[in-house]
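Quick one, tokens below. Sequence please?
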């Protein structure tokens, strides 16, 4: 099964159709604000390579022609101190995450910007939880660093990952040589009013291709770059535990669809829908259903609705790793409704909320029963 980010590897996009925009720091901050929720949770992307990936994915998401500017990209929802809330999982029995709750405390040395002589500093890190679905890796921990420092060093917070003694992901002190975090969130736990010292809860999500974990694998996380930059032996910030991914995989359901929408030569192929405990993925291909593959005189797109007639906002478009978060909801069916700006025989006319007239190809609607 191809993961959503691997699917982007073979995509060829003609960017000559688009105006090249320079992304300055103000624009980056504006993009980050879109990820804020009512609980003041923030998602950060600090590395230039990650910013580039975000922009590319946002362009790809726009190619799905979502009509009312729905949020089509975002990886972190409802983060409230636990990975289950991060993923929107119903995990009352804690069968999807590993609970570690191990604390490491060490004294390191560092040189402040306005000093020459190193000063001692204490670093305390408590690893709370770990989750992976063999592609996404989510780590939750508490740390005695303030939010500003964490924001500036969030790239250093990604740990090295070892499975059964084999290195599967290695962070780098050179941020341009590593993938880095795709999801990042900080939540204040407590603050000493006298010293100003903070303890924050941190969530980090990053991606490692093809882990292929099964049952009771030996996992080791090493916060090497964080330790090195604090003047601490990286081996000191090592956490060993076991993880069983089989419960998550067992609760995933694959629904074969194998249906195609064809509008005047533009095709949208739906291969399968994967219902996971935290999200639903749609695997397929498209030709002519995005700006990358369509002509200017005929742009086709689609909307997706659940069993209650509520429109589903995909985080990525079909053909590029489409998925959406369930957020604990029971999704029993999906309806994929294609439409175009140009009138086609037998189509019904519909006026969009934005005042644009579109034409719905009801005769090519795909129904998917997920029960």
């Amino acid at each position: 099964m191809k993961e959503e980010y691997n699917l982007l590897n073979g995509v060829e996009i003609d960017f000559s159709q688009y105006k090249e925009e320079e992304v300055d720091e103000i624009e980056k901050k504006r993009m980050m604000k879109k990820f804020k929720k009512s609980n003041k949770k923030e998602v950060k992307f600090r590395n230039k390579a990650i910013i580039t990936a975000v922009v590319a994915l946002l362009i790809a998401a726009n190619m799905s022609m979502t009509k009312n500017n729905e949020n089509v990209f975002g990886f972190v929802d409802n983060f409230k101190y636990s990975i289950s809330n991060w993923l929107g999982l119903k995990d009352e029995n804690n069968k999807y995450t590993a609970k570690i709750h191990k604390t490491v405390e060490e004294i390191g040395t560092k040189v402040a910007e306005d000093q020459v002589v190193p000063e001692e500093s204490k670093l305390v890190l408590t690893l709370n939880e770990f989750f992976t679905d063999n592609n996404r890796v989510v780590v939750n921990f508490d740390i005695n660093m303030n939010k500003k420092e964490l924001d500036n060093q969030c790239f250093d917070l990604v740990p090295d990952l070892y499975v059964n003694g084999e290195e599967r992901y290695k962070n780098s002190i050179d941020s341009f040589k590593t993938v880095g975090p795709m999801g990042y969130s900080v939540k204040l736990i407590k603050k000493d009013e006298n010293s100003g010292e903070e303890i924050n809860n941190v969530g980090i999500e990053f991606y490692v291709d093809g882990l292929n974990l099964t049952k009771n694998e030996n996992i080791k996380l090493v916060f090497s770059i964080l330790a090195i930059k604090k003047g601490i032996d990286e081996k000191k910030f090592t956490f060993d535990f076991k993880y069983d991914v089989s419960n998550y995989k067992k609760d995933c359901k694959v629904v074969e669809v194998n249906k195609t929408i064809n509008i005047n030569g533009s095709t949208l192929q739906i291969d399968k829908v994967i219902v996971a405990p935290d999200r639903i993925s749609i695997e397929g291909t498209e030709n002519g259903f995005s700006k990358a593959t369509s002509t200017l005189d005929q742009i086709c797109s689609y909307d997706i609705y659940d069993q209650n007639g509520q429109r589903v906002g995909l985080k990525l478009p079909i053909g590029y790793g489409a998925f959406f978060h369930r957020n604990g909801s029971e999704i029993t069916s999906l309806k994929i409704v294609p439409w175009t700006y140009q009138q086609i025989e037998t189509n019904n006319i519909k006026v969009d909320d934005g005042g644009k007239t579109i034409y719905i190809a009801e005769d090519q609607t795909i129904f998917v029963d997920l029960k």
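The CA atoms of residues 233 and 329 lie 45 Å apart. The longest strand covers residues 119-132.
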